[in-house]
Amino acid sequence: MFFEKLVRFFTRPPLSGPRSALLIRLMAGGVFLSEGLLKFAYVNQGVGRFTKLGMPMPDVLAPAIAMLEIVGGILLTTGLGTRLISVPFIVEMVVAILSTKIALYFGTSPLPKPAAAPFAGWWAVLHETRSDYAQLLCCIYLLISGPGPWSLDALLQRLRRRADQVPHALTKPASVAVV
After folding, report:
1. Could you give the dihedral angle defined by the CA atoms of residues 62, 67, 73 and 78, in that order, rounded to the nearest 10 degrees?
2. Once rounded to an integer, what is the mean pLDDT over residues 67-88?
3. Which of 58, 121, 171, 177 meets the CB 3.0–4.6 Å disulfide criterion with 51?
């Protein structure tokens, strides 16, 4: 029973969400997509960054995260599997904040210092977290409210409803008389 509700939550989001969810999807999906592409285009954004941060298996993890961001960004943008892809993105943003901003707070980050003051401490963390925080909250919003009516998720759900309304007489196989 719980499993069925969980599957339904992820596969049949409400169609009553605001149309403006499209803007949230475009923003979050576009950022994830571009960041995923950057991880392949520039070593310092992918494997190099993961290596500096001490992430395990950076040669495997960086391309895997890049693919998640590219595919997931496209899914978010189109509104297909929105709730499902929001979950790994939420986890990714929490890990990104924890793995980069704690060291920034203490001034021990292996990453380049911010371009302008503050370079460490609470204000530096608040300033440098703004994009991660926005992505995190966008994904939490999409997980809770769903993709909105202007999405592929909504289109598929409307098509399923129409298919369910087709009279069953049309779907029965014809009986064959045996002579």
Report:
1. -170
2. 98
3. 58
